[in-house]
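Duplicate of #3305? Posting structure anyway:
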Protein backbone atom coordinates (compact mmCIF):
# COMPACT_ATOMS: atom_id res chain seq x y z
CA UNK A 1 0.00 0.00 0.00
CA UNK A 2 1.16 3.53 -0.73
CA UNK A 3 1.81 5.90 2.18
CA UNK A 4 2.12 9.67 2.15
CA UNK A 5 5.70 10.88 2.64
CA UNK A 6 6.73 12.32 5.99
CA UNK A 7 8.78 15.34 6.99
CA UNK A 8 12.35 14.93 8.19
CA UNK A 9 10.90 15.10 11.72
CA UNK A 10 8.66 12.10 11.00
CA UNK A 11 5.45 14.18 11.01
CA UNK A 12 2.90 14.25 8.18
CA UNK A 13 1.34 17.59 9.12
CA UNK A 14 2.25 20.90 10.71
CA UNK A 15 0.11 23.29 12.70
CA UNK A 16 -2.47 24.60 12.10
CA UNK A 17 -4.12 21.19 11.81
CA UNK A 18 -7.25 21.44 9.66
CA UNK A 19 -9.64 18.50 9.38
CA UNK A 20 -13.34 18.43 8.61
CA UNK A 21 -16.15 15.98 8.06
CA UNK A 22 -18.28 16.21 4.93
CA UNK A 23 -21.50 14.43 4.09
CA UNK A 24 -24.48 14.97 1.85
CA UNK A 25 -28.10 14.77 2.92
CA UNK A 26 -31.32 14.55 0.96
CA UNK A 27 -34.78 15.63 2.01
CA UNK A 28 -37.97 13.74 1.19
CA UNK A 29 -41.13 15.81 1.44
CA UNK A 30 -44.38 14.04 2.27
CA UNK A 31 -47.83 15.03 0.97
CA UNK A 32 -48.73 16.64 4.31
CA UNK A 33 -45.72 18.99 4.01
CA UNK A 34 -43.49 17.31 6.59
CA UNK A 35 -39.95 16.33 5.66
CA UNK A 36 -37.63 13.49 6.41
CA UNK A 37 -33.90 13.94 5.90
CA UNK A 38 -31.41 11.15 5.39
CA UNK A 39 -27.73 10.79 4.71
CA UNK A 40 -27.35 10.17 0.96
CA UNK A 41 -23.56 10.08 0.80
CA UNK A 42 -21.61 8.63 3.74
CA UNK A 43 -19.64 11.06 5.84
CA UNK A 44 -15.95 11.29 5.12
CA UNK A 45 -13.00 13.14 6.55
CA UNK A 46 -11.15 15.85 4.64
CA UNK A 47 -7.69 17.10 5.63
CA UNK A 48 -5.97 20.27 4.52
CA UNK A 49 -2.25 19.57 4.39
CA UNK A 50 -0.38 22.82 5.03
CA UNK A 51 3.38 22.48 5.15
CA UNK A 52 5.72 25.45 5.61
CA UNK A 53 9.48 26.05 5.72
CA UNK A 54 10.23 22.86 3.85
CA UNK A 55 13.62 21.83 2.63
CA UNK A 56 13.83 21.30 -1.14
CA UNK A 57 14.00 17.50 -0.74
CA UNK A 58 10.84 17.48 1.40
CA UNK A 59 9.01 19.85 -0.95
CA UNK A 60 9.92 17.72 -3.98
CA UNK A 61 8.73 14.52 -2.26
CA UNK A 62 5.35 15.98 -1.23
CA UNK A 63 4.84 17.72 -4.59
CA UNK A 64 5.60 14.56 -6.58
CA UNK A 65 3.35 12.49 -4.30
CA UNK A 66 0.40 14.91 -4.55
CA UNK A 67 0.69 15.42 -8.30
CA UNK A 68 0.98 11.68 -9.03
CA UNK A 69 -1.95 10.76 -6.77
CA UNK A 70 -4.11 13.54 -8.25
CA UNK A 71 -3.27 12.56 -11.84
CA UNK A 72 -3.90 8.82 -11.34
CA UNK A 73 -6.67 9.19 -8.71
CA UNK A 74 -5.09 6.26 -6.88
CA UNK A 75 -5.74 5.73 -3.20
CA UNK A 76 -3.21 5.63 -0.39
CA UNK A 77 -3.12 5.17 3.37
CA UNK A 78 -3.15 8.29 5.54
CA UNK A 79 -2.46 8.37 9.27
CA UNK A 80 -4.34 11.09 11.14
CA UNK A 81 -1.63 13.02 13.01
CA UNK A 82 -3.88 13.74 16.00
CA UNK A 83 -5.18 10.32 17.02
CA UNK A 84 -3.02 7.98 14.90
CA UNK A 85 -6.01 6.43 13.11
CA UNK A 86 -5.02 4.91 9.78
CA UNK A 87 -7.47 5.63 6.97
CA UNK A 88 -6.83 2.95 4.33
CA UNK A 89 -8.37 4.68 1.31
CA UNK A 90 -7.69 8.37 0.75
CA UNK A 91 -7.23 10.52 -2.35
CA UNK A 92 -5.71 13.89 -3.16
CA UNK A 93 -8.70 16.01 -4.24
CA UNK A 94 -7.12 19.42 -4.92
CA UNK A 95 -4.01 20.29 -6.88
CA UNK A 96 -1.00 21.21 -4.76
CA UNK A 97 -0.19 24.90 -4.35
CA UNK A 98 3.43 25.91 -3.84
CA UNK A 99 4.43 28.97 -1.80
CA UNK A 100 7.83 30.60 -1.92
CA UNK A 101 8.96 32.44 1.18
CA UNK A 102 10.91 35.54 0.13
CA UNK A 103 14.54 35.67 1.19
CA UNK A 104 14.70 32.05 2.30
CA UNK A 105 15.65 28.90 0.45
CA UNK A 106 12.64 27.19 1.97
CA UNK A 107 9.08 26.99 0.74
CA UNK A 108 5.68 25.54 1.52
CA UNK A 109 3.02 23.38 -0.10
CA UNK A 110 -0.73 22.92 0.40
CA UNK A 111 -3.17 20.29 -0.86
CA UNK A 112 -6.39 18.51 0.19
CA UNK A 113 -6.85 14.86 1.07
CA UNK A 114 -10.27 13.19 1.33
CA UNK A 115 -11.25 9.82 2.71
CA UNK A 116 -12.83 7.58 0.05
CA UNK A 117 -15.84 5.53 1.05
CA UNK A 118 -15.25 1.82 0.46
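Output from current build:
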Amino acid sequence: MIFMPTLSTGAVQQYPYVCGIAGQTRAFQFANGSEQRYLAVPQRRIWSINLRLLQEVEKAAFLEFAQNRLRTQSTFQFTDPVDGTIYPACRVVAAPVIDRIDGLAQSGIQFLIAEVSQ
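Confirmed duplicate; merging threads. The chain has a mean pLDDT of 80. Residues 18-115 form one domain.
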